[in-house]
Design brief:
With 376 residues, this protein is α/β, with parallel strands linked by helices. The chain folds into 3 domains: 125 residues, no CATH class; 99 residues, 2-Layer Sandwich (Nucleotidyltransferase, domain 5), CATH 3.30.420.10; 106 residues. It is built from 11 helices and 10 strands. The strands form 2 sheets. Strands 1, 2, 3, 4 and 5 form a 5-stranded mixed sheet that branches. Strands 8-7-6-9-10 form a 5-stranded mixed sheet, sandwiched between helices. α1 crosses α2 and α10 runs antiparallel to α11. The chain is globular.
Length: 376
């Protein structure tokens, strides 16, 4: 009779990552902050070569490869100088190209490693994203990795290659979503099946897209659809002016609509701008207080001025309540207090309520058209 001892665990035991299963960003390890300086008193002007003095300082945060031992991400906070050349009146920042590309949120080390994982190791984009987090503690969305790889050309992909397009168009819904993505100095034009969410075509540009770029890109894509006898039923874009004329030329009979998200975003911005204008008007109407200690006769006026200033400050602090979709009971109480005696403020909130009801999925077409007529 043999007696079994305690289970022995060897080096082959599987130990999952401690962050596996976490769905909230707040629960992830906090990044460690490292500071770097690119702060110079003067730099040589890249346009004329003359000496350009420093006129301001700024900071830029970059996500770098994390600390594997501590299991924490690392964020580089770079303090850099901004310079002005008096000879040619040219403004430019200190050069940070050794750390990251312009307008990019990740360091060059992260970009290079992400491209190698896909090009050399053959990892899919989502697996590469998880690998970067698990082994290097830097989170990069897989769509960003895809943009980097396509821009680098490491997979030798043709934007609308025949083999991939045949698979992607196997269950083509007929509804397209067209958008442009900016990643540093690069711009990626994309066409996506708006029902199956497959990327059908892309084009990488090293400049801001023009009508000619969009027309050439979509004309080639339309030719591929015509070869397969596929018909486009609808197109969705953002509010950019790049698409309406091009879509009318290529698909004149196809309905074109703006993305719901971008429509709500523009309306929200307009409401917040109107709120800021009203707030400035209220601020200008506040009487000026006399210098020095207020007399007994002026104390009531002083209290009134403080009360008006506090109300303007509260409008700025709680401005999100005018555009937030769902308000709690406490938030409704605060909003009622802010709009008391101000019908123009109540009108702004009523506009947002009507807009949200207009985009309610339970709203029928006839009802939505009636509400749209009211808003107009």
């Amino acid at each position: 009779m043999s007696v079994e001892g305690p289970a022995m665990f060897g080096p082959g035991e599987y130990v999952p990552d401690v962050t596996e299963g976490i769905s909230r960003v707040e629960d992830l390890p906090k990044p460690r902050i490292e500071h770097k300086s690119r702060n110079f008193k003067a730099r040589r002007c890249p346009r004329c070569g003359c000496r350009a003095g420093r006129y301001a300082r700024a900071k830029r945060t970059l996500h770098d490869l994390g600390d594997v031992r501590a299991g924490r991400p690392i964020d580089l906070v770079v303090c850099f100088s901004r310079h002005h050349c008096r000879h040619c009146d040219f403004f430019f920042p200190a050069d940070l190209s050794d750390l990251a590309l312009p307008k990019c949120h990740y360091t060059r080390r992260v970009q290079d490693l992400a491209v190698r994982l896909v090009a050399e190791d053959g990892l899919p984009y989502q697996a590469a994203s998880w690998h970067l987090w698990r082994d290097h503690r830097v989170f990069v969305p897989f769509a960003t990795i895809q943009n980097w790889v396509e821009a680098a050309g490491e997979k030798n992909l043709d934007g609308i290659g025949t083999t991939y397009l045949d698979e992607a168009l196997a269950g083509f819904s007929g509804y397209l979503a067209i958008d442009e993505l900016y990643d540093g100095p690069l711009c990626v034009l994309c066409v996506v099946d708006n029902r199956r969410y497959n990327r059908l075509a892309f084009s990488v540009l090293d400049h801001k897209p023009t009508h000619e770029d969009v027309l050439a890109f979509l004309s080639e894509f339309k030719g591929r659809l015509d070869e397969r006898g596929l018909v486009v039923r609808g197109v969705t874009t953002d509010g950019s002016s790049l698409y309406p004329k091009v879509l009318k030329k290529l698909w004149p009979e196809v309905p074109h609509q703006s993305c719901r998200f971008h429509v709500l975003m523009e309306i929200t911005k307009a409401v917040l701008r109107a709120l800021a204008k009203l707030r400035k008007e209220m601020k200008t109407k506040i009487p000026r207080r006399k210098r020095g200690r207020p007399s007994k006769a002026d104390k009531a006026q002083t209290r009134r001025i403080k009360r008006l200033k506090r109300r303007v400050a509260e409008l700025f602090e709680h401005r999100h309540l005018f555009v937030k979709r769902h308000l709690s009971a406490a938030e409704k109480k605060v909003l009622k207090k802010l709009t008391r005696g101000q019908p123009q403020l109540r009108a702004l909130r009523e506009i947002m309520d009507e807009v949200y009801r207009l985009f309610d999925r339970r709203c029928k077409t006839a009802t939505a058209l009636g509400r749209l007529e009211e808003l107009r």
